[in-house]
Design a protein that fits this description.
- By secondary structure, the protein is of the alpha/beta class.
- The chain has two domains: 171 residues, D-Maltodextrin-Binding Protein, domain 2; 147 residues, Periplasmic binding protein-like II (D-Maltodextrin-Binding Protein, domain 2).
- The strands form three sheets. Strands 1-3-2-4-12-5-9-7-8 form a nine-stranded mixed sheet. A three-stranded mixed sheet has the order 6-10-11.
- Helix 3 links the parallel strand 2 and strand 3.
- Helix 2 crosses helix 13.
């Protein structure tokens, strides 16, 4: 697999709701070095409870991983989908063990933490453009047309710019209702980054970020909120992670990529977009991919945690439980990605992740064996 680089992130107040997911258990050939070292340590770790919060884009796969890990081991994890900005804020404030974000931390953001952090990608996924039109037609859209819709310049579904891309499709003379995220969002970051890369006008007037000043539209919290607006509003258009569209039976557009090819978002086209070299720090963006058949709005999603785990009174067992869970996510946990339309990590990314995880320490000593 591969990918392409870039930075940014968040801010924003969020409240971590108390919803508990049970997670746990490493097994088989991907057992972490710490687990292989001692069954007694693994038993102690199984009594720990881990907490995480952030990316709603990643929630479906983290929810599945959590259930499967719990069935194998018994470590409890509370991961709450509150948006990437909230996840970053919560890990910075040390109220969770890890944050989830679809936009990696920049060097400037890392300096805002009071101690060193690690961040590593877990899976890749597609951000799809979905809509609510009678008959659920399959539409084709270009990045330029999509930017004009979100700029409020194309306001009717039968606008010639849309109609010319979709010969044979009867489009209604219906208002386009734009839906976007109302919270700080890594999904928004990647969607607006894509628009910035394909539209100079969008770049000049709006730009990209986890939150932007939207020219038009209705806001919804998290991917689920945007999917809800689209499902309930005739004429609506919005952007969500692929799993949210399929779970809500929402159609999604075929987009023209940088190579000029029309690409349907899918596991295959997401994997093709992610098929690129991975930097050692795992920080890379995939938007507007060079892959000829790659889907153009593809992103990795990251987990963020503290490198030194002896803080806030946590025990070595707790630190080991967290490191073991991370190790499982990038190995055994990858098998649960494809059924949920996420692309598993390429081998190069797994290798980079292993090196990152081996840098975790407790009282200055490595948690995972080399």
């Amino acid at each position: 697999m591969k990918v392409s680089v870039r930075p940014v992130l968040t801010s924003g107040l969020v409240v971590l709701a108390a919803v508990v997911l049970l997670l746990s258990g490493c097994s088989g050939g991907s057992s972490s070095p710490a687990q292989m070292a001692s069954s007694a340590k693994s038993t102690a770790s199984s009594k720990e409870t881990l907490t995480g919060a952030g990316s709603s884009f990643a929630y479906p796969i983290y929810d599945k991983m959590g259930k499967e890990y719990n069935a194998a081991n018994g470590v409890q994890v509370n991961y709450q989908a509150i948006g990437s900005s909230g996840g970053i804020k919560n890990i910075k404030n040390k109220v969770v063990d890890f944050g989830g974000s679809d936009a990696f931390l920049t060097d400037a953001q890392i300096k805002e933490f009071d101690s060193s952090v690690i961040q590593f990608p877990t899976v890749a996924g597609a951000i799809v453009v979905t809509y609510n039109l009678s008959g659920n037609p399959t539409l084709k859209l270009t990045g330029d047309v999509l930017a004009k819709i979100y700029l409020g310049q194309i306001t009717k579904w039968n606008d010639p710019a849309i109609a010319s891309l979709n010969p044979g499709v009867t489009l209604p003379a219906q208002d386009i209702i734009v839906a976007h995220r109302s919270d700080g969002s890594g999904t928004t970051f990647n969607f607006t980054l894509y628009l910035e890369r394909v539209s100079s006008e969008w770049k000049d007037k709006v730009g990209h970020g986890t939150s932007v000043n939207w020219p038009v539209g209705l806001g919804g919290a998290q991917n689920a909120g945007v999917a809800g607006i689209i499902k309930q509003t005739p004429g609506a258009i919005g952007y969500v992670e692929l799993a949210y569209a399929t779970q809500n039976n929402l159609p999604f557009a075929t987009l023209k990529n940088k190579s000029g090819n029309w690409v349907v978002p899918s596991l295959k086209t997401t994997s093709l977009a992610a098929d690129t070299s991975i930097p050692a720090d795992g920080r890379i963006y995939l938007d507007n991919t060079d892959a000829p058949q790659g889907y153009p709005i593809t992103t990795l999603t990251w987990v963020i945690a503290y490198k030194e785990q002896k803080y806030s009174g946590r025990s070595l067992d707790h630190a080991r439980a967290l490191a073991d869970f991370f190790w499982w996510m990038i190995h055994d946990g990858q098998q649960y990605a494809e059924p949920l339309e996420y692309a598993p990590l390429p081998s190069a990314a797994v290798k980079a992740d292993e090196d990152i995880l081996r840098s975790m320490t407790y009282d200055g000593k490595p948690i995972l064996s080399k």
